[in-house]
Amino acid sequence: MPEFLDKVKQGIAKSVTTASVKSKELLDVAKLRNQISALEKVRREAVEELGRTVYTLYLNDNLDENIIRSKGYSITQIDEQIQTLEDDIVRVQTEARRSLNEKDASGKCACGAPVTVDMKFCGVCGQKVEIDGKQPGDAAADRFCSQCGERLEPDAKFCSSCGERTS
Fold first, then answer.
1. Nearest to residue 97, comparing CAs of 31, 151, 163, 34?
2. Where are the domains of the chain?
3. Fewer CB within 10 A of the end CB, N or C, for the chain?
4. Could you tell me the pLDDT band of residue 161, with boundaries at 50, 70 and 90?
């Protein structure tokens, strides 16, 4: 009986830790996505301004390359800031997985972001995730320990979490 209670305590502690880490991850990612949205708006406005400027210069028969370059450079800087924030999202997600002892990236999304077997959608672009031609949740891709419920590696003979022999 004490063994059972210890397992219940461990389960509760793991659940609390998971909820805490996931909440922090969601909050941090939401903040970063808000920053990305704001920058994307600024970028759209800068591109529109560039278009207006080029058109005005064209109408005045004065296509000043330096003016166009400086506006283009500003847009490039915004793109770099957006990429940095997208990289930060991947970093936050990776740190959360590591603190929960989850698997690191086992593939890459079409957008280049790392993805794991437990992800159904990419956290950066929202695209459906496929790893080695299989989607998470495929019966052939996912196996779980009958003792503790942890995900098993495809070729595992024993659970890496509790040591239970797999079938």
1. 151
2. 1-102
3. N
4. confident
